[in-house]
Amino acid sequence: MQTWDRACVVLRDKVGASNFETWIRPLRVAEIDGRVLLSAPSRFYRDWVSRNYLAAIRESLAVAGCAEPDVRLELDDQRQGELFPATSVDSGEQEKPSAALSAGPGAPAGNREDKAPGKGPDRTARRGGGPRIGNLVPRYTFENFVVGTSNEFAHAAARAVANRPGEKYNPLFIYGGVGVGKTHLVNAIGHAVLRRNPLAKIVYVASESFVNDMISALRRDRMDEFKTKFRKVDLLIIDDVQFLAGRERTQEEFFHTFNTLHEGHRQIVLTSDKFPKDIPDLEERLRNRFEWGLIADIQPPEMETRVAILQKRAESEGLELSPEVAEFIASEVTANVRELEGVLTRLAAMGSLNGSEITVPFARSVLAPHLVDRGRAITIEDVQRTVCEHFGLSLTEIRSKKRTQSLAAARQVAMYIARKLVRASFPQIGQKFGGRDHSTVMHAQDVVERRLAEDPSFRAAVEALERALTSSRQA
């Protein structure tokens, strides 16, 4: 089917090479009576593609010349456990189906963070004139949020705000590391407010989109429209507010927006990876206002919460996950919920394709390249040497104060891997890289994570570095 082949070229660019190989290539395609029928190798695959990629498939078919494509997904029981390429697109060397670790569009929710901030259109959620909830993530509700000691205070605060928006804890400022559940909680607030008041106007936007919107409004001389959009709302949610730092004009505009909403008893909810006083280059007047209401932190989940998150996610996906397997994964993956659920997604996908029962030995074999070995520990120096060898740098250079583009990129990768594999603190890592501040390390992690989500070749290179480090330790 030539139309499908052309659509796959578009679709590969749209979802990324790794996600394409993992979720699209296993589909078998046929055209019957003008309909495009896609046959999935398992129920898990069918449901996942339907939920997360069906819209992208339709859009790609339309671009390829299929007017108003009627796409249907079906399950062929005889194909379960097999892999059937659905396209003849030349993709070069085929990637292993590991993209589930990065969890592309629509990856499992749990308490996971949303994709990189500032990508895509503004997330405006309104209900009125129809049951549309904008871009609030459907699964990010209080009912799907697993509460543990690491997040119970932030959860209670979010519940209180949802019950009495604009009255209690205004603003609500939630901070914590990457992938611990901040975005889940603020989405849950939005859903709860809409259930109580279907006509409530909610704007949910990443701070980078706020910046881009303001720049566009200035360029087009439409600042009145911009102000109306953000000041005539019942609930304003700004994700990753730390990215407003250092932008004087944007901070000034947000300052006035904040004041207008606060004076009108409209609820403001903010998330950040830092405590307000630790955000560099943030104006004191904004820092002061962020501390007016309630500040709640979320820590990485403890063992019991990690197990509960895995079991809840598996249950929602219809996966059979024994307590032993859940405890095994939770004991190995400790950084954040995003990584935890990415591992579960990969395990489920491989089990579905191979027709294998998900046991502890199976989980260990499938996830071996990605799990933390408890043998000889990796050090920050090990990471630095491996990265330097890859980029052709010296240890002196990567630890120096030089900030050329290529050197800075290599240093950021080394900091990211050190944080992931060594489990060192931000200050400890900064000290090993020429005495840099912890905020520099946090910024490096953000930059690398965003690029990992967008650039498959970059992700492959970083994963290769991680494998080199873990395999050398196991030798």
Describe this structure as you would to a colleague.
This protein is an alpha/beta fold. The protein has four domains: 2-97, GMP Synthetase, Chain A, domain 3; 123-298, P-loop containing nucleotide triphosphate hydrolases (Rossmann fold); 311-370, Helicase, Ruva Protein, domain 3; 380-474, DnaA protein, C-terminal DNA-binding domain (Chromosomal Replication Initiator Protein Dnaa, Chain: A, Orthogonal Bundle). Helix content is 51%, strand content 10%. It has 20 helices and nine strands. The protein has helices at residues 2-15, 17-24, 43-52, 54-63, 152-163, 182-196, 207-220, 223-231, 248-263, 284-290, 303-316, 323-332, 337-354, 360-367, 380-391, 395-398, 405-422, 426-432, 438-454, 456-474; strands at residues 28-32, 35-40, 70-75, 123-126, 172-176, 201-206, 235-239, 267-272, 294-298. Strand 1 and strand 2 form a beta hairpin. Helix 1 packs across helix 4 and helix 13 crosses helix 14 (360-367). It starts with a helix and ends with a helix. Residues 78-133 have low confidence and may be disordered.
